[in-house]
Structure formats: structure tokens, C-alpha cells
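Lecture 7 notes: from sequence to structure.
We start with the chain below.
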Amino acid sequence: MRQIEIHSRFMRKCRCMKHTVLFRWRQRSFSFLQFGAWRIVFLALLLGYGWAPKANGQEPPSNPTASQSQSGTSTGGAHAPVKDAQQRPITAGGFVSGAPVVYVDTTHAAGLDKFHHHAGSPEKRTILETPGSGVALLDYDNDGWLDIYLVNGSTEAALRGKEAAPRAMLLHNNHDGTFTDVTDKAGVANERWGFGVAVGDFDNDGWPDIYVTNFGKNRLYHNNRNGTFTDVAEKAGVTIGTWSTGASWGDYDHDGYLDLFVPGYVKYDVNNPPLSGKGGLPPGFCQFRGVEVMCGPRGLAGEVDHLFHNNGDGTFTDVSVKAGVADSRGYYGFSSVFVDIDNDGWVDLAVANDSVPKYLYRNKHNGTFEDISYLSGFALNDDGREQASMGMAVGDYNRDGRIDFFITNFSDDYDTLYRNEGEASFTDVSFHAGIADLTIPFLGWGAGFLDYDNDGLLDIFVANGHVYPQVDKMDWGTTFAQRPLLLRNLDGDKFQEVPAAPGSGLAVIVPARGAALGDLFNDGHIDVVLNNMDSTPTLLRNAVRNTNHWVTFRLVGGPKSPRDAVGTKVYLTAGGARQRGDVISGGSFESSSDQRLHFGLGAATKVDKVEIQWPSGVNEEITLPALDRIYTVLEGKGIVEK
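Predicted C-alpha cells for the same chain:
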């Protein structure tokens, strides 16, 4: 207990010191050198508390069991079960009769239930079987409608060649609310133990390519522009061959080509899986609330991360170490995203790690990154504790022009909302925003900022599902299959749960993992696709019908920007508010969402200003002739299609 108390006091001191430095920095307009001096003082004080930074980054003292109720995952202490009026766990109950129907489950009607995800056995005896897989929304054939790519897992028997491997599925949008399986024709079945998917046009030919991360070799499906793809990962040099998770594309060096970041998760040997009492793990080591469960990630060796520089000729060079993002500690990486956090025109890099501190790397404009994970306030939560971070959403929820983060975490812990304070500093405002208590019983995965009701404020969607089937046998107030959460942005400061009407899309009880968001039906409303563990997927179609207006942009980069405009920022002013949207690849959990930028406008009847900041450095303003439509904008040419 004494160790816990000292650790808690230590982290509170760190936070106070950080906030003091930032306050003085803002009040007195410190120069960069002056802040550097304060940083030296800050680190010197940390040394006085017994923390010596590593040569390649900061690392605080770790006490894995101080605040956890089990050995494998970083979470909070055991919480009392939360139940609804029918005594159902709130994760599989809490439905509100008479609540408005916001989403409807159209999975069967759309034809998505022909896909079935597989990941090992139902018992989930090993960690390989538990994370599940992602989903991507992309217009692979450039017909103006989003298609769906669902990644599949596998089984131990398939890995050993004793049975056919489960297959991924590409579903073509038929423009009528239904989808057709075109996997065989497209050649994108993967047939490996798949986890993540990231969409990006790596060769700037105007057609989206697909990167699939696996346990084993990854695939890079190059779009042949005729409805088919070719796996060029070997030639490109991006197979890796270990256990990769949620990748992200982004042009970190401003050469006009998308580079690729790939987090690594756990070192795993199929022939010697980690089990309690075996492989160096003591008997009884792998427990959750005193119940034996699968082992990991804590106690297991982690994989390193990889940054691949795009050479512009179809090949990539691994520059992870040179760039300073190799993760030499072997943290358990799950999700990543390139996005500009400090508005300097260069994409930075955020990585959500499982049960260890998160990474935030600031782009130094010279091909390298600075690890600012701790100094930014992003590495830990407000209690100074690492969390079991799964998914990651990025967006400007309070309309201050700065990118904020929402991170999903384990049950018995809360999902974390980090508000960007400027100067690359973030504050955990989860409790203030009304998010923390609500999310504690849930185990979150895929997530995204979206304006589901087009009122001009970004809301939050969260996909949930547990990793331990054993929870269904216990009275802990949580379940293996869980309902999603939709958090409505009230005023740019507070959020409120949107009640789940019985039988509606928000009332589906599924073991969700990957989540991708986008306007699947080109009607100006954001829909959601979930990839569910050992199950069929879920298509949640937006059922909100109101008088609010909207506009969507499909951006096309010029010769000095990535063709798919990844890294572009758009600022839209309407109704007295200025919104921001960023084109990203990756994020959520092992997934890729619609790369078109959607803005809800509320009651505004006109857009006053649209500012576009392209990756090339070109700034452009456009005028919209009308609302409630999708515009294609070509860098330097303005609107080219309506």
C-alpha cells in the first residue's frame, strides 16, 4: 500500500508541475528555448523522485498490480455491478422504452450477414483469440459509393494447415441499400489470421489500396483499377511477419507520398502459447477478479513498431529506428493515427498501447519524431495510471481548432477524453465531460467522432465487447457481448448518453471489435459498421430525420500532396461556429472510416467560409453554391463535381 501511495503522490506532483509550466508558458509567452529550460527543470525534479528517463524516451516507475484486479491487463479496481430495472447488466440492458430510434440494424437486409468472423475457440484460452478484427469503408471502384471490407481471424487448425482458413470479405455497394460479395473477383480474401486494415493510395494513382495486418505476414493489396487487387507486400517490403495491429497511412516527411506506420502487439508462439503455469508464467498468474483467464498482454514480451518510408517507386524502407518511433520497449500497440496535433502543418503520430503508457510523437520536420508522450499528458490518465487502450478517435469536439483524442479502455476503467490545450498539451477531461462513470462497466474497442444528428457538434460512437467469456458466469455487471454507446455532444463541453430504444440499432448486443463510420448511402447521415467477434457483422443505418443541414467533401490532392488527401485539414464556418475536419487513415480499432469529410450544419442555411489546408502547404478557400450535397474538391482547382 505504501508503494501505491508514493506512486500516486508522484504522479500528482508530475501533473501539477506540468500544468504550472504550461500556465507560465502561456501567460508570459515563453520562447522555445525558455520552455526547454523549464523542461530540464521538470526532468530534474522527476529525477529527485527516482525516475530516470530512458535514453530514447521517458518511462515512469511501473507497478503493474498496484491498481489492477488482475495480472494481464491494466484496469481500475473492481467496481460494483451496474444493472438496469430488470436486473440486467447495464452492458446488455438499460434500454429506454419510447426513446427515439437513432440507428436501425439493417445487417440482414443489406446482405452483410453472409460474412462470419472466426477467431480461435469460444473459450478464448489464448490472447491470440481475443482482440478480433477491423473493418474498412472505401470506394474501391471509384463509383462514388462506399464499399465495405471486413477482416477475418483464423484458427489454430488453419494455421497448421489442417482446415481451410477463414476469409476476409469485400462487399460492393449496390446503391440500393444492399451489398454484393466480390471477394473472389477482387482477390482480397487474405486467408491469414487478420487483425487490422488501413486504406490509403500509396502510389498516388487515384485508387485506394488496402493494407491488412496479420499474425504472420501482412498484405498490401494494390488496386488494379479494374475491380481487382494484387498483393504487393513482398515486393514493397512491408510484410513484417510478426503480430501487427492497427496501422495508419500518412505523409510524415512532405514528399507527397503516403508512408506507413504499423504497431506491433505481442510476441506469440503458436507451438508454446502463454498459459498459467507454463512458459515461465507462474500458476495462477493469469486472473481477472480472482478467476483464471487467458494470459496477457502483461507478462508477455511485446513486439516493436515499424515506420515505413514510401520510396515513391512501389517500395518502402523501414526507418523506425532513425525516425525515433521503433518502440524499443516492446509496448503492446493496438491502434495508431497520423494527425497534426499542434497545427504546424506536419502530421504527428499517436499510438494507443494496451496496458502500458500511450505514445505521442511530435514531428520534428526533419524525418524524425520527438517522444512527448508524458510531457503532453497523453501517456497516462488523470490519475497518472496507464490504461488498457484499445481504440482511438480523433476530432475537434469543442470547435477550438485543435485535435482532441478519445481512447477506449478495459472494463472496470473509463474511456478517456483528452482535450487539446494547445502547445501539444492534453488534459484528461473524461469526468468533467460526463463520460467516465458511464463507460466503466464497458470494454471499448472501435470508436469515432461523428455528427450523427447534423447539429454541428461532434458526438462519439463506441463499440464494446469483453475479452473474457467467463464474465457471463459472474455477477460483475458486465457481459461478453455488449451494446454500443452513442454519446451526444451537448455544448462542446459535456456529453450525454443517447438512450437505446428497445429493438433499435443501439440495443444490439454483440461482441464488437472494429468499427468504421461513414455515409454508406450518400444521404448525408453517418452510418456505422461493426466487425464482431465470432459472429456476423452489424450495419447500423442512421435513422435520424430532422431539418438540419450538412455538407460533405471528397478531397483530391494535387501533385505535391497525397492523391487521397490524407493529412488535409478543412475548416468550415457556418452559423457562427468554426468546425475542423481531418482526412486520416486508420484510427478507431484496427479500422478505416470514410475519408470524405462530413460537416453537420444545424439550422444554418449557408456556409460562410471553407478553408482547406493541403499537405503540400497550399491553402485554399472555396465557396459552396448549395448545402446538403457531396462535393469533390481538387487541390488548386476548387469544386470539380457536385
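Points to note: The radius of gyration is 23 Å. The first strand starts at residue 103 and ends at 105.
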